[in-house]
Here is the input.
Amino acid sequence: MTTRQIAGISLLLLFLALLGFLSLWSDGGGAPSKTLILSSSKECRECHPDVYAEWQASWHAKAWIDPLARAPDQSDNFKKKDCIPCHAPRPIFEVGFIQGQRVVERQANRQNGVDCISCHKLPAGGFAAPTPGITGPCNPQYHSGLSSIELCAPCHNQHNTVDEWVAAPAHLKGDNCNHCHYPEVMRPGRGGGPPREGRSHLLRGWRTENLEMEAFSFEKRVTGQDGKKVVEVRMINDKTPHNVPADSRNRALDLLITFLSKGGRPFPAADGAREFGQEPGTYRKRLRNPYRSEIGKQNTQIVAGTEVSLLAPVPRDAVRARIEILYKMTPFTTDEDAIVVRSETIDL
Here is the structure.
């Protein structure tokens, strides 16, 4: 074989190798991209920049670095090992959807929290996709489990949220957790193609936007009871397919009625001394699932399809009532640091 023939064959082999490489790492539209290691969510950004940006802004992405999760009364910087699996989980599909089965903690990239790998990676290779027929370098494969409540259960049913959803009235549910927390959005088409439907990965919740305003109905009225004027406030869980406030035991909703004198002076607590963070308000109701260690305290969450009310007898000389609903990330949060869900004043 001549030198020219050897050179020609070498050139042909190089061309075929390059062609194979481009074919392997194309994005489905023919455009080459970087080699995807797919051991971290950062590798997903190449093909899914908008989804990656949403996830990065979400509390799933911050699950490991969240100061509240790391607080001494919570995981204590994850010295409480039981908290690690849900804040830095290995792929949920590895464990499978077994009733009561928890996720398994991972050792690497814990700073990514609950990432793309956690929810999408399949044990036999490839990544779970929400619809059939999707192609790409990560080998997407349709899996119905990606849109199921069972995907959320290994972490979020630690606080019975999924069980609450199952028991909720059918008209409140939607199809799954995505109905409220991962709403549909339109994504740009690949390679100049038409726009396509997807789901937001911002993880809607009470820490990302005013979802609390959509969680329940609110009614107030001034009425009479036993010959006395009474302010009645009702909170009705007719919009949420699980308890309110939901999920973590440390979340709290405080309902306050504060009576004001003609000079604007608030009337003090009608029921005497209160625990830290609950001192203000003439009348007050706390809505929360207590810690397991709080023996004797009742669960006062609003169950889906039910309501709670607060009746406040109007003191003599009161001319107005201020009604407030405050959302607290921990039961020790003061009113000044709470998220104000509602605040309004009514004349008496």
